[in-house]
Every structure is written in structure tokens, then in C-alpha cells.
Design a protein that fits this description.
Blueprint: E1 3-8, E2 28-29, E3 32-33, H1 34-43, E4 49-54, H2 58-66, H3 68-72, E5 75-78, E6 83-86, E7 95-100, H4 107-113, H5 115-118, E8 123-127, E9 130-132, H6 136-146, E10 150-155, E11 163-167, E12 170-175, E13 184-191, H7 206-216, E14 220-225, E15 229-231, H8 235-246
Parallel strand pairs: 1-4, 1-8, 4-7, 10-14
Antiparallel strand pairs: 2-3, 5-6, 8-13, 9-15, 10-13, 11-12
Helix pairs in contact: 4-7
Domain Nucleotidyl transferase: 4-230
Protein name: Glucose-1-phosphate cytidylyltransferase
Organism: Paenibacillus rigui
């Protein structure tokens, strides 16, 4: 079974007061933590075992999943013996491992701390703040086909400024556009256990240290995704995702959701 690692330990300082009381992956879009949006995307492709690498305000994510069944369903409590009877069960058959990987660990360091859980088979990794309509099964198939240790997903970011269509001097339409000149790391990875040999300490950054060494050794391949991708890095990004969700046609939305 392919395990999914969610890097959910960062501070998220550019989201201001949103992350004063909660970690960035618990910031809500459409009334649901963005972490759950991401997990829904993997589950919709048939992946259901997750390892959440915790750090900043780890207790908030732990409490969310510890109480998830009771918060989402009706239940009865037998006061005589404290037995709890849940009236319904979630339709998601998920296994969620919650692992504290250190308050100050960097992204590579968090994976290093998970090495004993990841040393048996291919695993997938993503951040706790990015949503996409990338086909995760095709990504995994691409990875297995090339035979290297690592695959990263490349995406074209949304340009900061949109464009305006004119008829004469009359504005007829505003359009967002993609930065068609650049490919960037979209944060959806597939790794073989051999990648763990490239990790050694908490201070290592996955992007700058580990991926660089993999590339130098000819062990890193790129899967190009030309569809939707968005990272919730700032309040402006959050508001953009909220507007897409409110429209009822969010490109990343899974067929089933956890709320």
C-alpha cells in the first residue's frame, strides 16, 4: 500500500492571524481545513493511508483527527460506563498516522524522522498547503516507468497579474493567466526508499538540499502537469481558493469530501 506523507509542520507566517492559533494546514477553505482538501484528492485516487508530519501546533491537528468521528456524526454516551455509540461512520476508510517530527525540523528533516515508516516501498509526499487536479495515479505510473529514485511534479504558476481584453477602449473581460515561461516545483512527489539515504539531519531542506543531490546523481525526474495548481501561501491565495470553492466548480474538488 502506497503511503502518503503530508508535510504539515511549518509556521505559515505569511497567513498572519490565521496561523496564530492553528497550523497552516488547518486554515479553512469552504469551511474545511485545506489539509482535508488535499487528503480527499489522494483518497479519490484510491490512496487511503496517510502519515502527517507534525510540528508547529501539532496538538491542533491531533485533536481534529482524534475527535473527527464524534464531531461529524451523532452519537450517544452511556454515562454509567462512559461507552460511546456512534450513529454513523465516515464513508472514508482512512488510516491516519500523526507523527510529531519536531518544531524546528525542515522539510527534509521531517522525512528523515519518518525513515523507519518509509523504508519498505514507494511512497508519495506533498505539502500541507497546495491543491491541484493532478492525476495522482498517472504520476505514480510515470514514476514506476522511469525507474529512478524520485519524481517531482512541475506546474505552471498562476501569474500575479491577470490580463484585460479590450474592444477599442472598452474593457470586455478580465482573465487570469499562467506564467507560461516557467515550470516550478508543484509539491507532489513520489519517492523510492533509496531517497532516505540522502537524508541525515533535521536541518535539511527537501527542496534545496535533497532534491539537488538527487538531481546531481541523475535520480530525479519531472512529471509535467499543465492543469490546475494553487498554493495557499498568503491571504490573497486563500481568498482566491475561497472564491473558487464558493463558485461550486473548484478544479481540485474530489467526488467525496470529508468535512
Amino acid at each position: 500500500m502506497t503511503k502518503i506523507v503530508l508535510l504539515a509542520g511549518g509556521l505559515g507566517t505569511r497567513l498572519g492571524e490565521e496561523t496564530a492559533l492553528k497550523p497552516k494546514p488547518m486554515v479553512e477553505v469552504g469551511g474545511m481545513p485545506i489539509l482535508c482538501h488535499i487528503m480527499n484528492g489522494y483518497a479519490d485516487h484510491g490512496f487511503n493511508e496517510f502519515i502527517i508530519a507534525l510540528g508547529y501546533k501539532a496538538e491542533v491537528i491531533k485533536q481534529y483527527f482524534l475527535n473527527y468521528v464524534y464531531l461529524q456524526n451523532d452519537f450517544s454516551i452511556h454515562l454509567s460506563n462512559s461507552a460511546i455509540e456512534v450513529k454513523q461512520r465516515p464513508d472514508r476508510d482512512w488510516i491516519v498516522h500523526l507523527v510529531d517530527t519536531g518544531l524546528n525540523s525542515m522539510t527534509g528533516g521531517r522525512l528523515h524522522r519518518l525513515r523507519d515508516q518509509l523504508n519498505k516501498e514507494t511512497f508519495m509526499v506533498t505539502y500541507g498547503d497546495g491543491v491541484s487536479d493532478v492525476n495522482l495515479r498517472r504520476l505514480l505510473d510515470f514514476h514506476h516507468a522511469h525507474g529512478k529514485l524520485a519524481t517531482l511534479t512541475l506546474v505552471r504558476p498562476r501569474a500575479r497579474f491577470g490580463t484585460v481584453d479590450l474592444v477599442g477602449d472598452q474593457v470586455v473581460r478580465f482573465k487570469e493567466k499562467l506564467d507560461t515561461e516557467s515550470w516550478i516545483n508543484g509539491g507532489f512527489f513520489v519517492f523510492e526508499p533509496g531517497v532516505l539515504a540522502y537524508l541525515s539531519k533535521d536541518e535539511e531542506v527537501l527542496e534545496n538540499d535533497v532534491l539537488t543531490r538527487l538531481a546531481e546523481d541523475g535520480q530525479l525526474m519531472a512529471y509535467r502537469h499543465t492543469g490546475f495548481w494553487e498554493c495557499m501561501d498568503t491571504m490573497r491565495d486563500k481568498q482566491h481558493l475561497e472564491s473558487l470553492w464558493s463558485s461550486g466548480s473548484a478544479p481540485w474538488a474530489a467526488r467525496k469530501v470529508c468535512t
